[in-house]
Design a protein that fits this description.
Layout lengths: L1 H23 L6 H8 L4 E6 L2 E8 L8 E4 L10 H7 L5 E4 L17 H14 L5 E6 L1 H12 L4 E7 L12 H5 L5 H7 L3 H11 L8 H11 L4 H10 L16 E6 L7 H10 L4 E5 L6 H4 L1 H13 L2
Parallel strand pairs: 3-4, 3-5, 5-6, 6-7, 7-8
Antiparallel strand pairs: 1-2, 2-4
Helix pairs in contact: 3-13, 4-5, 7-10
Amino acid sequence: MILKAALALLVLLVLAGGAFLAATWAPERSVESLKARWAPPPSTFVDLLGMRVHLRDEGPHDDPAPLLLMHGTGSSLHAWEGWVTALKDRHRIITVDLPGYGLTGPSPDGVYGGTRDIAFVVALLDKLGVPRAVVGGNSLGASVALRTALAHPDRVEKLILVDGGYSVPSTSMPIGFHLLRIPGVGWLMQHTLPRFLVEQGMRNVWGDPSKITPAMIDRAVELTQREGNRAAIVARFMQRRFGAPPRYADVKAPTLIMWGGRDHLIPREAADALHRAIAGSTLAVFDGLGHAPEEEDPRATVEAVKMFLANN
């Protein structure tokens, strides 16, 4: 009797698993199939480090210190569209899909993080003929910007760190982040893409989840399906290295720190610690916003950027 019950339970689990796979199976999509919707002009692609890198380069090209803005985990250059619209009349703005995300796709050798991201930034600036830039980013992009400023201070005019660059324990985390910690789940995540899971992740990190639109979820789902991106996300997670923290006191570039007061992924105390650690930095906190304030309320947040850029 016990054996029959166990067999019945096993059959139910197999059937449930099969149904889940069938319902959430999401094959990879080619870059060409995604370009029309997600890479209209002024999007362009450049050959860099063995990749066809997706970027937008807008505004006056005689700007002596262009802005280079980098997105966070699971995002893309589209996160900066609000800031770009507000700034491009007076500033050159470069936004880019980092390796493993958006339409840039995976690194050819599958190596991510650390010195590789810094090398990517420097190679991009060289490719575009930019000797010095205002370098900024959100979350992952902020960490890349910070480490670039430390490794190549001669290339960074100013630094903008948005909800990233300093680690403290999360008080809430998207389910997908938890799943990546489970052995063997990486394969499943590379072949399935439950829309509800993507939506939950976005709602988890926004201060006001009601602002999330179906179009935003479409973008996240479709760009994650770009061939190689899901494997790259898993590889980035597996290749994380928790070494010594950045040498914050060595940051010499004028620095703007921006934070969402409702950020539960990297809570507000990280902003205060980062502000104390980087001498002379400016801190702007937006109480009602979450982990991606530049996207959640670009109109309010870009005003702090305008003031920062205007100060010599």
